[in-house]
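ok trying again, last paste got cut off:
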Amino acid sequence: MFRPFRSEVEHAVESALQTLALPTDDLGVETPPEDVPATLASSVAFRLARSAKDSPPRVADDIAAAIDLEPDSQTYEYIDHVDTRGPYINFHVNDAYYMDTLTAAQDPEYGHLPNTGQSVVVEHTSANPTGPVHVGRGRNTIFGDAVARLLEYNGDTVDRHYYLNDAGRQVGVFTWAYEKFDADSLPDPERDRPDYDLVRYYRRGNEFLENADADAVESAEDEIASIINGLEAGNTETYERVQTVVDQVIDGMQQSFDRLSAIFDEFIKETRFIQNGDADAVVERLKSADCAVYEDDAWQIDLSAYDIEKNLVFLRSDGTTLYTTRDLAHHEWKFDNYDASVTILGEDHKLQAEQLDATLQILGNDTDQLRQPFYSWVNLPEGGMSTRKGTGVDLDDLLDEAIARAREEVHDRLGSRVRDDSLSSDDIDRIARQVGVGAVRYDIVSKQPTKGITFEWDRALDFEAQSAPYIQYVHARCCGIETEVNSNTDLDIDALTSDSIPDITMLRTDAERALLQEIARFPAVVESAAADLEPHVIATFARSFAEQFNTFYRECSVLNAESEIMTAARVSLVRAARHTVANALDIVGVEAPQSM
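nice, full thing came through this time. structure:
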């Protein structure tokens, strides 16, 4: 209900300013200072004091007096009263605001906004298909998946794409090595999965190219070049050779994505834009551009007019295109098929992103529909995990470690669980997976993407601190309360639908009202976070919401309330809280356990 209340406040301020013949270009509606017990405030008096030739507090009083809340005037459904404190005009909500919030949040889909009618493609991860996903690239997956989830909650229709580099030199080396070396000559794979199996060939191929004698390397480079040129020429046999390697690796990588519950709707291969002629068409259009130059045996675009010093190379002297050339065709395809495009990129790709954006404009595209948020890297604490020489830390290693540590924590906490029912070994495995993977995802999403992360186990898996398990525990606690009420009272919780919940006047304590205020804010938090592509805002909300719920839990007994009707009211509030925290966790890709 926060969103319609905010609209009412904006209308009330604007109408009052019009009555006073004051400018309405900036209404100053914002969250009030912490010591002000209002839901929203307007600081517009600050801005208007000079033009009104009066002090901000007096201007605020005049504006507040001009707001007409009489029933026969403009109807405000949720504004109870208006007052001022200093320069702030403060807006307070009525019982209808709380009642409609409690009613709306009985819906398990609470927090989903109405359909915007906008289609969005979110491209993320897009790591070269040469082996398992590493921890650093895993941040792209986790952040990108959270952005896609957030946009879906915002009401957009979202497709998640992985743009697959299956035409570059690395893939050429990989294909050549896979065909050249015998499996028996390679070390055992680190896991029984195709990506771990095939990466051995890629590593051996690179070792060969670095250490073999000059004639052998020259011969190998000729074979690699023939693979790359075969792809450029659209040779079917070459394409099939490459896909034999690429498809197996992607099948293996998909298992890592599945562990993270990261979904891809489609893997878009860059060879698609070679085979259908789009890349060649881009080349011809770029050659005819005024800023096209042929320098250093390559066709380039001079981007100095866009304050970019480095030219974009789009065609080599041998007639082969580059990754960026194909990506230009790829982005034009996205522009043709979606209303908006989001590409999640590592901070080391900022220059390429700027070059891409500028060149797309040169090609005549409106790049306002393109957004390219960046993320920084993930570091592990010294000694926190082993790093295999030359391979880094695989995402699977991090997840295994997280689940193992979560399992230990679950065992240690068995005596203080929310419920007194027994847990089977399967239950413990499930909770360990939910908590362990959730800890990794939350710890990564909760940070602003442009800030580097040092992953710390003790913080990420702390059930008592501001971490995923702390928030997940709130959801489990809500489930436990509802189970206890069902088992120990005559109330039929399932019969407490949005049409039969008790009157909101039953919920009068500060803890109850504060929790309802947070529930009411959730859809607006989704809206704001989606506008800025900031899933960490949802993570922050979930953490503060968990704290607010725990205050309610300590101060307001549900099962031992003074009356059955009070128990019914509070269990309705618990259910609303459960839906809110479950969906906040869902946006950041963290499971909400029913027991812990």
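cool. The mean pLDDT is 92. The radius of gyration is 29 Å.
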